[in-house]
Write a structure and sequence with these properties.
Aspartate Aminotransferase, domain 2; Aspartate Aminotransferase, domain 1; 2 domains; 7-stranded mixed sheet; 4-stranded antiparallel sheet; binds pyridoxal-5'-phosphate; PyrdxlP-dep_Trfase_small
């Protein structure tokens, strides 16, 4: 066994072969202590001093994600948004940033706000369009290129390796948000990203009972120390109870994503060309414009995220979501239970989204139950 590199499936299932040497427990304890005593000579007893810095349970969850990402280091935050915001806060004043014009609405809102305040200088490129990205770069000036792939809610795909080359040629760092395809599908750091972000609220935890955000990096350094400092001073470290749940959730990550992918492939193929559906947006479908890149970047593990654009009016789309009996009409994604949402209602005005778009997170249920549910909902919403 000594020379054998264990596979991610094994390492995840065993939470890195955790074992408490004192008790023999194979499940980690939750360490809730907010403070830690000093050493006999009154020096700090590293590594733990105060809960806002870090804690043992969260460190364990970070080690699991770092292992999965092939990262030099990982930090966990209380939400995806607090992790994303820490990266923005670590940028110098008025730094130039490139961001996609269609992306997760919370991150976009944050960029719009910081740009309006003069804190950052944000240029938007057409999502997934590398020519537009290249044209918007300012050599030697652009600090960060933000990529979301697959992007929310259209599921366009960006070629991460090509984006990394564009960013690096101009001296910028590449940030990727691949929340829709967790690191067992897309290994963004290996493709060339400098910072890999995941909303761990979604697939990594997978049970809709934690909010968490993960940042993983290829290289540590002063910049990364600054991100740690921001987390510490803003108090946005992931708390130990949530870290415990996240560790438990991640043990089944690969099983869950495999099942969600199988379900999604069957589901998407069923509704493509359906008389009440105008379009199905899913990178796993061969007809999807990003299919070949997605296949390469995920190894065929496309995940369970898709959108459908219904025929009829915007109200038909809303009525379809409300008529579902198995799907929950709720926001979020990547959980074991399937969700459907009318995206325009949720993101509000000012975001580019088709009025008839329903975002669907396919879970691990029986796929026939999901297909029958959406069939009846579409028929009822269409007045049938
Ligand atoms: C959910 C999500 C976020 C934000 O994460 P939270 O955990 O909700 O704060 C960012 N990006 C994407 C793509 C997401 O789906």
């Amino acid at each position: 066994m000594k020379n054998r590199q264990l596979s991610p499936a094994t390492r995840l299932a065993q939470a890195l072969h955790y074992l408490d040497e004192d008790t023999g427990a194979i499940i980690p304890a939750i360490h809730p202590s907010a403070t830690y005593v000093r050493a006999n000579d009154y020096s700090e007893r590293k590594p733990y001093i105060y809960r806002r810095d870090s804690n043992q349970t969260t460190d364990h969850a970070e080690a699991i994600i770092a292992d999965l990402e092939g990262a030099a280091d990982t930090m966990l935050f209380a939400s995806g948004m607090s992790a994303a915001s820490a990266v923005m806060d670590a940028l110098p004043a008025r730094a130039h940033v490139l961001a996609p014009d269609v992306m997760y609405h919370g991150v976009l809102q944050q960029f719009q706000k910081l740009h309006a305040l003069g804190r950052l200088d944000v240029t938007y490129y057409s999502t997934g369009d590398l020519t537009a990205m290249q044209a918007a770069m300012r050599k030697g000036q652009t600090a960060l290129v933000w990529v979301e792939s697959p992007n929310n809610p259209d599921w366009d795909v960006t070629d991460i390796a090509a984006a990394a080359k564009i960013a690096h040629d101009a001296g910028a760092r590449l940030f990727t948000d691949c929340t829709g395809t967790p690191p067992c599908c897309t290994r963004a750091l290996e493709l060339g990203a400098d910072i890999s972000f995941h909303s761990a609220t979604k697939y990594l935890n997978g049970h809709s009972d934690v909010t968490a955000g993960a940042l993983s990096v290829r290289e540590t350094g002063d910049w990364w120390d600054e991100v740690f400092n921001i987390r510490k001073l803003q108090g946005t470290v992931l708390q130990s109870f949530d870290a415990f749940l996240l560790i438990r959730g991640m043990r089944t990550l690969i099983l869950r994503v495999e099942r969600a992918t199988q379900n999604a492939l069957t589901f998407a193929a069923h509704f493509e060309g359906h008389p009440l559906v105008e379009r199905v947006l899913y990178p796993g479908l061969p007809s999807h414009p990003g299919h070949e890149i997605a296949k390469r970047q995920t190894g065929g593990m496309y995940g369970g995220m898709m959108s459908i654009i219904t025929c009829g009016t915007e109200q038909t789309a809303i009525d379809t979501a409300l008529a579902c009996e198995v799907f929950y009409p709720a926001t979020s994604l990547g959980g074991v239970e399937s969700l459907i949402e009318h995206r325009k209602t949720v993101s509000g005005e000012g975001f580019k989204v088709h009025p008839n778009l329903l975002r669907i997170s396919i879970g691990i249920e029986d796929v026939d139950d999901l297909i029958v549910d959406l069939e009846q909902a579409l028929t009822r919403a269409a007045g049938g």
